[in-house]
Specification:
It comes from Ataeniobius toweri. With 318 residues, this protein is an alpha/beta fold. Helix content is 31%, strand content 16%.
Amino acid sequence: MVFKPSPVTPVTAVLLAEIYAKAGAPEGLFNVVQGGQETGSLLCHHPDVAKVSFTGSVPTGQKIMEMASKGIKPVTLELGGKSPLIIFKDSDLENAVRGALMANFLSQGQVCSNGTRVYVQKDILPEFVEEVVKRTHAITIGDPLLESTRMGALVNRPHLDKVLSFVEQAKKEGATVLCGGEPFVPSDPKLRGGYYMTPCVLGDCTDEMTCVKQEIFGPVMSVLSFKTEQEVLQRANNTTMGLAAGVFTRDMTRAHRLVEQLEAGSCFINNYNITPVEVPFGGFKMSGIGRENGQVTIEFYSQLKTVFVEMGDVDSLF
């Protein structure tokens, strides 16, 4: 295996290689190659590469698929998401709030499966928003190596600027910033050059807004209201992506009825962003091809060979 990490996250891949080596993995089994777009292109086109797996954005995934097609190479693509989280009025509100926070602010919102379109049934919208905003205000931002920290920095300056620009665009389109969405300077002098922002909750959102349609990949939650199950199902599926989806309700019959119709590879009922390695993970539609994790993944990293062995005489028509 040859692993090329993102050029903005080069270190952990090398640490992983060192861990494998110390654990006794044979030399050459796991290899790390650093580089940018050109390196990725060379790997995709290389005749010795038999399979390409990519995690990243939809546009880059499309390019990877095109390059791999030149050599008829199979691909696994784990791409973007704009996943819906649907909260019904009969939900356990405390758990729904916890789920919404986990669905949006884990890893500074830099998680492809995040449930960033939070649909809340109209009857409980004010109560839900009040509690979410209160909890979001209380998130401790700072050094991720400290136990007390709940949110660290975004990956780099251009990405921070991009996420903040999504917040500004949301305001122009009529969304209300209920909290956060601003650059943040930690009190620790060592962190003052970091790419921090305050976690953001956007209210008064509609399905047509940029913040609801495009993946932001940052700590920005868009809250929308709905009235009926059928209405929210149609709105939830009205996207080109389908990585994940979540439903909070005490009615298990409704929950299963809904997830059966949700066009998403991973569906959560009364929780969110739970990804044990035993369970397959991957997307529908433009969120990708193939699966990661779970036993089924072996099928995407191996080829099936059929062998016939005749133990008797050949039955021939000729």
